[in-house]
Amino acid sequence: MTDDLHASVAAGVLGTEASYQELLNSIVEVARAIFKAKASSILLLDEATDELVFEAAADEESEKLVGMRFPSSTGIAGFVLVSRQPLVIEDVVADPRFSRETAESTGFVPKGLMAVPLLHEERALGVLEVLDRPADARFTLAEMELLGLFANQAAIALDLLQRARRAQAALAGTGDLAVVARLAAALERRREEDEPDTAFRLLDELERLLR
Amino acid sequence: MSAEQQPLPEEPTGAAPEEPLPAWSLPADAVDRISLPEIWPGEITRDWAWGGATGAGVRVCVLDSGVETGHPLVGDVQKSVAISIDADEVLVEDPDTAGDLCGHGTACAGVIRSIAPECDLVSVRVLGAGYTGSGPVLLEGLRWAIEQGFDVINMSLSTTKAKFTGLLHELADNAYFKRTMLVASAHNMPVESYPWRFSSVISVGSHEQPDPLAYYYNPAPPVEFFARGVDVEVAWMGGGRLMCTGNSFATPHIAGIAGLVLSKHPELTPFQLKSVLYLCASNVGGGK
């Protein structure tokens, strides 16, 4: 019960989903820029449906993909997720069966891709992909390491995003704890508006009411 | 295609001595009985270790996404099975006719055959049923493969789930004692994942050189060996080829070399095999 109460209070004061979404967008933008790639995206695992969902994408074309889902064992992203192994593949277009359905449904068939699992503690949360690096750039282990560092950052952001979503779900509930969560959220808003003594005034009012 | 229940474990086909050897202690009169059949030269060279070897007679298992049989870089696959779990029952689909669901298993098989062209290849598919449940399927696939007594199991997979660690450890040790060499991809990120971290397996990371037989012993484990893993041309689905990078392509290089050594010296235990690999590493024996 204490944990639930803590979670409810935390739910009220946690950052919004939008702010974590911005963080993810920023990560894919930087990943794309650093690797001079055409596109970059983050796929989140939805454990309830066992699907990978496009959560963020760095270029206009790929932004249309956000929200799109496909089975978690599909193609390279699925393999990377399940095997926990990062892969770099060139000339994927030369492969006649490379995630054909997914690639066509997204309207973007890459020539090469780097895919790395997003691991947080013992969970695999999703996959970071960087698509179409310059054709003349030879891949090095230093880049693999850089990709790993990015993946670590993206995994932390994804973990926060998932926590925010769970918290928002708690906030939207109807039980006693949802009331606590909403109270905490209301007090947090007041604090942001420089009215830090609201909580004490509320307590005074409550005591009077309950007397 | 038929799905059947998991068969009873088969006896390993490794070179087991006919008379049982002392297992738990060594009485004085038994010393002669453990004299090793292998005559070790003063210096272990690559020529001694695998000179003239083709991998013939060695059974290598690819625990992965399936293998495309008949691919020009792979050739025939002697057996393909798929592991799945339905309501707590382990199903072994034999033969698995789904081929390769991703391309990765075919890539690994092609690398192994490029080094040990005459080895037998067996594909055990443990991927394809989605992310959820992939851990238990990986465990059961490994268990099944160890029961078959393969000489080498190539595993470019790992799990981060702590609850599987104990069981995986037990399986890896079982393989080691049954003369099955598990060759597993190491992580190139600071992540706790298994089974590559266990000392009973050979763990493999990547180096950047294009030589498929160049490999290095790492004096700072847990990663034990580095093999070719950058810009490797590999077999892919649909008879295709791709340029790939990752530890999961370095791993089959070592699995292939292990296959060569075992085809020439089938008596070697995993401990001895690891020792030979160490002594012939590019930074140890100088690749002689």
Average residue-wise pLDDT of chain B: 89
Could you give the distance between the termini of chain B? 48 Å
Helix-strand string of chain B:
EHEEEHEHEHEEEEEEHH
Strand order of the largest sheet of chain B: 1-4-3-5-2-6-7-8-10-9
Cα Rg of chain B: 18 Å
Protein described:
The complex is a heterodimer of chains A (211) and B (288). By secondary structure, chain A is α+β, with helices and mostly antiparallel strands. Helix content of chain A is 53%, strand content 19%. Chain A has helices spanning 2-13, 17-34, 60-63, 75-83, 100-106, 141-171, 176-192, 198-210; strands spanning 39-46, 51-57, 69-71, 87-90, 112-120, 123-131. A 6-stranded antiparallel sheet of chain A has the order 3-2-1-6-5-4. In chain A, strand 1 and strand 2 (51-57) form a beta hairpin. In chain A, helix 1 runs parallel beside helix 7 (176-192). The longest helix of chain A is centred in the last third of the chain and has 31 residues, at 141-171. Chain B has 6 helices and 12 strands. The longest helix of chain B is centred in the last third of the chain and has 18 residues, at 247-264. In chain B, the strands form 2 sheets. In chain B, strands 1-4-3-5-2-6-7-8-10-9 form a 10-stranded mixed sheet, sandwiched between helices. Chain B has a two-stranded antiparallel sheet with strand order 11-12. In chain B, 25% of the residues lie in helices and 20% in strands. Chain B has helices spanning 46-50, 104-115, 134-147, 165-177, 247-264, 270-279; strands at residues 3-5, 59-64, 79-86, 89-93, 120-125, 152-155, 181-185, 202-207, 216-217, 225-228, 232-235, 241-245. The A-B interface holds A 45, 47, 50, 71-73, 75-76, 78-79, 81-92, 94-98, 116, 119, 121-124, 138-141, 144-145, 148, 151-152 and B 65, 101-104, 127-132, 134, 156-162, 185, 187-193, 206-208, 230-231, 236-238, 240-248.
